[in-house]
Design a protein that fits this description.
The chain has two helices and no strands. By secondary structure, the chain is mainly α.
Amino acid sequence: MTVYRSRNALRGPLTPDGIAALALPATRLGRRGYQVDDVDALLHRLAYELGERSRQLAAVRAENGRIKDALRSWQSAEATRRLGP
């Protein structure tokens, strides 16, 4: 079984800038295909959605780090309290 690989495929991770910069070729006159304006609108929406997900993921990771730090501090304080003065 062979794998199709486009010469114009995006390389590396999918990013909002990569999607926004993607240019699909226009169809020739008289041939069926996508409307360029519709495809461009979809690509811009995808770029926005992916950017929003990236921002949300960064916020979740920051909150996760804050919670881990608070837990470590509490565990250290609790261990010190149990050992006594």
